[in-house]
Amino acid sequence: MASANTPWSEEDFSCSICLDVFSSPVTAPCGHNFCRTCITKFWDEQVKYKCPVCNKIFDTKPDPQVNTLLSKLAAQLRTTVRVKEQPCVEPAEVPCDFCTGTQLKAVKSCLECFMSFCQTHLEPHQRVARLQKHRLVEPMDRLEDRMCKKHDRLLELFCQTEQVCVCQFCTEGDHKSHPVVPLKEEYEVKTAELGKIEAEVPQMIQERKQKIKEIKDTVELSNKVADRETVIGGQVFTALIGCVVKLQDEFNQTVQEKLKSTEKQAEDLIKELEQEIEDLTNRCSEVKQLSHTKDHLHFLQTFRSLKDPPLTRDRTTVEVRPPSYVGTLRRSLHQLNIEMKKLRDDAVLTRVQQYEVDATLDPDTAHPCLILSEDGKQVHDGGVWKVLPDNCKRFTQYIHVLTRHSLSSGRFYFEVQVKDKTGWWVGVARESIDRKVGSTWTPETGYWILHYYKDRLVFYDDPAACLPLRAELQKVGVFVDYDEGLVSFYDVEARVHIYSATGCTFSEPLYPFLCPGRHDYEGNNSAPLIISPVNQTD
């Protein structure tokens, strides 16, 4: 047994291949001992099977037997003799490819062997003349991936054209005309780019988190809108069912009244005919009785009263006609259409009122004759031209005014009180309208306007659309869907639709537009136009 006072040294129990203490030692036919793993790997890489120590050649691959005694001595030596002090490999370091027990840190990598060696296993490269010609470099992990597959040379350069790593021989062949730089130089460039990407990634993550929040908010809003629409739809259909039931009852009542009238007519006529039959029957009896009398005087006196015909009418043309219901159902359906339109207009108005904006008049756009309230909600004609700073936004030809609020996408709604006025203009206008000279106020020139004057309601277009007036307008609602190209007007008090301009093309901001109209010397039309808050209980 090896001990501190025996002549045996650590070398006596070391494998001549890995130079480490035997691990699972086996004995070759020639008597030399090796680690099982080392001799097996050695023979797998040889064309001829020979002993690494005595170079004896074997005809077939030997099957070395386990050396039990040597295994025990080597195991004991491992516990009593310390292996040469070398640093063990750390997680970020390159391990020795030859260490079979505890892996030690590699000190060099061989570009010929494609392996890395610790200080102990590097010894053959420092001693054997043939191995001394191998090119040793600083330790590299996964060495085979660092070699050019075509030229079997280290990849030391970077081709900027094809963005691949190349060896020196590649620059003389396929990459001859391509710009190449050392790996370190390209590494510094790419590291800088990576730093930029690293800085951008958190921002991109934040943007996506924000987008997720926006999507979730949209879904939540969609749920609220769906709930609101369900309620509104339920109210509309409930009211519609009520209208149908009411009109059905009225229709049935009308049919029954017509039937009762016909029955009454028939009953009265039957009574008249039955009375006439009774009278005629009595006359017939009197005639028959008189025909048998022999009293000349009585006969002549009675015949005088019988010869006159009875007081009856000609009944040949008398008839009772069944009642006609041709127009009854048509009138009921017409009334149902009217009620459905009211319900539809009311539901649509309720929906668009959800898009109310806080519109405030902009004094910088107001004509010098206009007077605006302090809160910017009212405007009327003052009749006097005020001296005001001129600017490109101000109207100077007509007494118009715009609001501060504009719309470039989405939807908005506002209401204007027009009570007690004989003339006014209300609508929207695009930002680029001409504010200094007169022009036609049509969509082509940038205006979508409803005009009222002396019981005449018109939407300015080419040609103008003359609209019916059901009753005196008190308040006008204006709704704009920018993306859909829609401008709609509503009678808020009656809750009915007045007019819609569809298929509009908007390419710039739109502003609510008001014109209170001039007042005369008697003060007519002096009432203001008032931007009023939406009251959905109207």
What is the topological layout?
Blueprint: E1 25-27, E2 33-35, H1 36-44, E3 49-50, E4 57-58, E5 65-66, H2 68-80, E6 108-110, E7 115-117, H3 123-127, H4 129-132, E8 136-137, E9 157-159, E10 164-166, E11 180-182, H5 183-290, H6 296-306, H7 326-352, E12 370-372, E13 378-381, E14 401-402, E15 411-417, E16 423-430, E17 447-453, E18 457-459, E19 465-467, E20 475-481, E21 486-491, E22 496-501, E23 510-515, E24 529-532
Antiparallel strand pairs: 1-2, 1-5, 3-4, 6-7, 6-8, 9-10, 9-11, 12-13, 13-24, 14-23, 15-20, 15-24, 16-17, 16-23, 17-18, 18-19, 20-21, 21-22
Structure description:
The chain has 538 residues and is α+β, with helices and mostly antiparallel strands. The chain folds into 3 domains: 1-83, Zinc/RING finger domain, C3HC4 (zinc finger) (Herpes Virus-1, 2-Layer Sandwich), CATH 3.30.40.10; 207-355, no CATH class; 356-532, Jelly Rolls, CATH 2.60.120. It is built from 7 helices and 24 strands. It has helices spanning 36-44, 68-80, 123-127, 129-132, 183-290, 296-306, 326-352; strands at 25-27, 33-35, 49-50, 57-58, 65-66, 108-110, 115-117, 136-137, 157-159, 164-166, 180-182, 370-372, 378-381, 401-402, 411-417, 423-430, 447-453, 457-459, 465-467, 475-481, 486-491, 496-501, 510-515, 529-532. The strands form 6 sheets. The chain has a 7-stranded antiparallel β-sheet, covered by helices on one side. Strands 14-23-16-17-18-19 form a 6-stranded antiparallel β-sheet, with no helix packed on it. α5 (183-290) packs antiparallel against α6 (296-306) and α5 (183-290) packs antiparallel against α7 (326-352).
